Amino acid sequence: MQSQVTEISPVLVEVKVEVPWDEVRKDMEDGYARMQKVARIKGFRPGKVPRSVVKQLFASQVRHEVLTALVEKGLFAAIEEHKLEPVATPDVVPTPMVDGQPMAFTAKLEVRPKVENLDTDGLQVARPSSEVPEADVDREIERLRLENATIAAPEPARSAKKGDLLVIDYHVSIDGDVKPDMSANDHAVELDGERLLPEFEAGLVDANVGDEKTIAVKFADDHGNAALRGKAAEFRVTVKELKERTLPAVDDEFAKDCGDFPTLLELRLDIRKRLEETAKRRSDGALRDLVVERLVDKNPVPVPPSLIKQEEQRMVQEFAQFLSMTGQMSTPLSEEMHNTMHARAERKVLAAILLGELARREKMDVSNDEIEKRFAEIAERTGKHVAKVRVDYAGDRREQLVSQLLQDKLLDYLLARATIVDAPAASDAAASTAEVATSEGPG
Predict the structure, then answer these.
(1) Which of 66, 194, 306, 401 could make an S-S bridge to 88, C-beta 3.0–4.6 Å?
(2) Are the C-beta atoms of residues 318 and 280 closer than 8 Å to each other?
């Protein structure tokens, strides 16, 4: 069996394999012999069917089985001989089998690229600030006030105003067409200036319990739901309940209600400590991400398209799950979002390739002692016996743990060689997060 490999690109090769006729003939004869033992043909006892009859009836089946087996065997042998690292199912093109002639086939194979020069020197990263401004503590205090607020109908009864909580029924029409799937009963809304469409919220201000209102809304041209972009909507709303939230005063009594804190100062100190711990973890995580980004920037290597596609599909599934968990309707990705995901997927796959190459060059692996140490840490954190943790982390979970431990070692190696500077402190404003526009309801 002979094989030849031609590189089409750094991530695609063509493999040509030729199997001598003597080997093909032997496998064919072996195939007929197996078929002769199991064939059930009327007029012949099991195992006594003449070879000539077997060949006449089952030649096509035997040829197919032999061809399939030889392609698999030949491709595996070529991969081993030429030290290829395939990353996807090969595209095989066999030639017809002709008696007395070698059997040949070609296969196009996506392979892991060879990293000739892995450059890990001179990586420069800026550690994100972990400073916690006083405004962050104030925001946490306000969050606790909201958690400890009392919610009740105002006395005496009044019209709705900003900050109130309403329970409403609403029915929706889009360009005159009634949309039952977008309507809702006993729907809770808050007039906080953040979650509702501005026109919709403005239409609820000054409403009273029992009011029936018609609110016109024009959806933006770039709305998250493509079917609603630029559309005119009409909401017929019935206000069923109106409640107000009364926030507690920020004093020592408030601190006691929030936990075992005798004074407001001790509560603020505890909040600061927790926020600083969270900020430190976030900063450390961001630093590790950044050093990988610099590694990718410094080592441009072609990436197999199939691996990019797999990662992109995984990201799309995660995005769809996020939308589902947050009660939002999944919509087709825009071209811009698709391009963004594709670029992120490509960099993520490249990062994995480079880290794998780094592990190979530096002969990094994870020892049993390191695994046991992590098991002990998990046991201490969860309160489980270490033997139970071992059982919990059997099979795939153990492999995932080992992969994470190896990645941690690789990132520690890169950070030890990198030049790290402190980034400027962020402003007091809270970090903004990208909003995903809802595709249904008034919000």
Answers:
(1) 306
(2) no
